[in-house]
Amino acid sequence: MDFVTILNGILTLLAGIGIFLIACQMMSSNLESASSSKLKSLFAKASSSKLLGVSIGAVGTALIQSSGATTVMTIGFVNAGIISLHQAATLIYGANIGTTVTAQIVALGMFGGGNSISTSVLFSALAGFGAFMMLFSKSNKWKTTGGILTGFGMLFVGLSLMSGSMETFAEQDIVKTFLASISNPILLVLIGAILTAIIQSSSVMTSIALAMVVTGLISLDQGILLTMGSNIGSCVVAIIAGITSSINARRTAIMHLIFNCTGVAIFMLAGWVMSLVSNGSVGFGSLFESVFPGVPQVQLAMFHTFFNVVTVVFMLPLTNLLVTVAMKLIPEETDKKEGTRLQLQFVNENILKTPPVATEQTKKEILRMAALAMENVDRSLEIIKTLNFDERERFEQAESELDYLNLALVDFVVRLSDKAGLSEKDHLYLSTTHRSVSDLERIGDYAENIIEYAETLKEAQQRFSDKAISEISHVQDLLHKLYDKVVYAYTEEIKSEVQLAYKIEEKIDEYTQMMEGNHIQRLSEGVCTPTTGAQYLSLASNLERIADHLINVVKTVRTFAEV
């Protein structure tokens, strides 16, 4: 045995894995950035339709070239309560199909060689073209495209190194003899699962298996079993993501594991039956060799696709059962404790792994904060009009939530802004969020002021006149019209709606000034007292400032909206 040769092969393999992983990460982040709007609209369409969920999971994974990212994103959505467990299951099904695209690309890169230029060399050259685009282009769009090409090219550089190391191992009789001796199907699946769990990339494991089969280091049947094991090992990413998340997020991770284990069990059972019936002459390896003769890389890549598609077809009707099993394995015992904890609803740590989608979810979190602030404004106005404090406790809870969101959202946005894969528009939007969050928190503070005015009135055993209450209700209606316009413009990103919001805000300014004049007249007529008058003037001023802060939120639309 040539120790130096073996060591050289191991080091080359490690180098290839490293480059392959970096290439996957680079390609994934740039693809996310280039297709951020597609990703946002894609995952926003997740519905109760199982086939639609599978399609979204498959297309989304193909777009970002990472089933791990899709699964972690799905866990983030479940954790945030955006999608149900049933929807999460179908997205995971689709992710397993989408991830087979990588194996097909790698298999394509293994053609050629000898007297012709190999596809691997041609694809590897794209790394150079992409690097030049990244270095010399001033356009962010072209830089992103360059990043995609560089990642794609580096994918094949890493593959070439891995294939070279396999050729080195194939020349060593002791290595070939050792690998040939590993024939136990369960052991091969276990090896594939463990290696994938260590590398945390089923794409790398599948690519290594492809290289080993092509160089003759292992048989196609061994490669098939390693590939099936890689599907189980890929669940580690989801399990890690689910450990620190909500119960439903942990259920999603366990569903991913059950799904992949079920697929492996079905195919191993089918393989055993075929071998038993044919006395060992027929198996998945021989079947795919006969369908795709002379191209071992295609044989294994096609099996990988076939395995995942068939598993999805088998599991799709059993989705309800899968969800039930996951709920039985992870019961509801801690849900009550989690429900009382202040937390972000639409964003979390896991969703940071997909920055474009995290940006869209940040907007939903800000809109949620706006709704909470407006609800508290309504509560405070109803309390001061009626001096009925039954809603005081709910008001305090909402105020605490607003204070929490103010700090938690700013912290989240700071971390999100540092992530790669954000478009220029995403960066522009995120730059406005700190001000918006602060404005919404201030609206909550003004609602708190109104509660204090109500307490003063109650202590003095006084209340506003019917005319004053009618004026307050009118301003409340105008505030709702302004709020609706702000939410519409902010959600749909329409610049022209901002000017319409300004017109409503001007009406509020005019009306609150009129309220002050009316108050002075009522004071002179003896309709109200100095105590009620002081609270009324402060109230009018607060209502005008609430409108100002709503306008500050909608003004940001001009910064990031395109139309």
What does this molecule look like?
The chain has 563 residues and is an all-alpha fold. The chain is built from 25 helices and no strands. It has helices at residues 3-34, 36-44, 50-64, 67-79, 85-98, 100-108, 119-136, 140-170, 173-181, 185-199, 202-214, 220-233, 235-243, 247-277, 284-291, 296-315, 319-329, 335-339, 355-386, 392-417, 424-459, 466-492, 496-525, 530-555, 557-560. α5 (85-98) crosses α17, α12 (220-233) crosses α16 and α19 packs parallel to α21 (424-459). The longest helix is centred in the last third of the chain and has 36 residues, at 424-459.
**DSSP, total strands:** 0
Question: What order do the helices and strands follow?
Answer: HHHHHHHHHHHHHHHHHHHHHHHHH
- Low-confidence residue ranges: 334-340
Radius of gyration over all CA atoms, rounded: 31 Å
Helix-strand blueprint:
Layout: H1 3-34, H2 36-44, H3 50-64, H4 67-79, H5 85-98, H6 100-108, H7 119-136, H8 140-170, H9 173-181, H10 185-199, H11 202-214, H12 220-233, H13 235-243, H14 247-277, H15 284-291, H16 296-315, H17 319-329, H18 335-339, H19 355-386, H20 392-417, H21 424-459, H22 466-492, H23 496-525, H24 530-555, H25 557-560
Helix pairs in contact: 1-8, 3-5, 4-5, 4-13, 4-14, 5-14, 5-16, 5-17, 6-11, 6-16, 7-8, 8-11, 10-12, 11-12, 11-16, 12-14, 12-16, 13-14, 14-16, 14-17, 15-16, 19-20, 19-21, 19-22, 20-21, 21-24, 22-23, 22-24, 23-24
Short characterization:
The protein is mainly α.
Descriptive labels:
single chain, mainly alpha, 25 helices, elongated
